Amino acid sequence: HRHLTGIAGLQPHEIAFLLDEAEQWVDLNRSATKHDGRLAGLTVINAFFEASTRTLLSFEIAGKRLGADTVAMHGSTSSVKKGETLIDTAVTLNAMRADAIVIRHASSGAVGLIADKVDCPVINAGDGRHEHPTQALLDALTIRRRKGRVEGLTVAICGDVLHSRVARSNILALTSLAARVRVVGPPTLLPPALDRMHVEAFTDMDRGLEGADVVMMLRLQSERMAGGLIPSPREYHALWGLTPERLARAAPDALVMHPGPMNRGVEIASSVADDPTRSAITEQVEMGVAVRMACLDVLTRRRRGTPGWA
Ligand code: CP
What we know:
It holds the Pfam family OTCace. This protein is α/β, with parallel strands linked by helices and 310 residues long. It has helices at 12-29, 54-65, 86-95, 110-115, 133-147, 165-176, 205-209, 233-240, 244-247, 270-273, 281-299; strands spanning 43-48, 69-74, 100-105, 122-127, 154-158, 180-184, 200-202, 214-217, 255-257.
């Protein structure tokens, strides 16, 4: 079996294949029935060791719409609280004969560790600052549907890039699909060695947004900042917040994205987040269900006796 631990390791045609597969589920999800039984009899365990609204619920909904039996394990109410190790937890889930395990964990690399210990496909639902591959896929699908393509677009990923698994997975996916990717943010929140990731770095927000086709805002991740937020949220908004005035620097039809959850008034002004024509934020959530259906379907195909990846 094959896992989805990150965008790293996926070929451009494999990313495009998953996006193509997700299209059919967008249509089904907009229909009255919303049901396809192809995963009937399969068990999907959603093991979340870190808080989530979108990712956990969309994996649950995705599994159920495909007919799987889905069960959720929350780290905060599990035996992890009694000191059970991550590996022992993984071996325990494996013994229950799951057919797919979806994992979110605060430690980078935790999902890869579990993938080596179990007998079924593992999907990374976000691990520390490492990767959040299904978020990058749903973002790419949103861009592709709104703009008709990803190739050649200028995408500005703005804010707390340093702590963001969403930024990392998006940089990998969007550069792989031949977009021009910029990262924009305070020097203290931009990771080193960005040139190796084939992105252009800007510390000036106005310059970074100039002519961008897509403006992707990131949440300030205070839970990953040991020393607290520098600068203050108010200063941050003044210098790097996405306001209507700043958005005017981007292309006239620029798409505004945010993976959620948002800090309104910090990285993004409410008037921009709620702009009915420019903001794709709720569409991103909708695409999340379709992309996760595609991932669960494709990764369990071999178990169901049909060819898996293209
Ligand atoms: N975008 C995202 O991963 O949201 P949740 O943390 O709510 O799952």
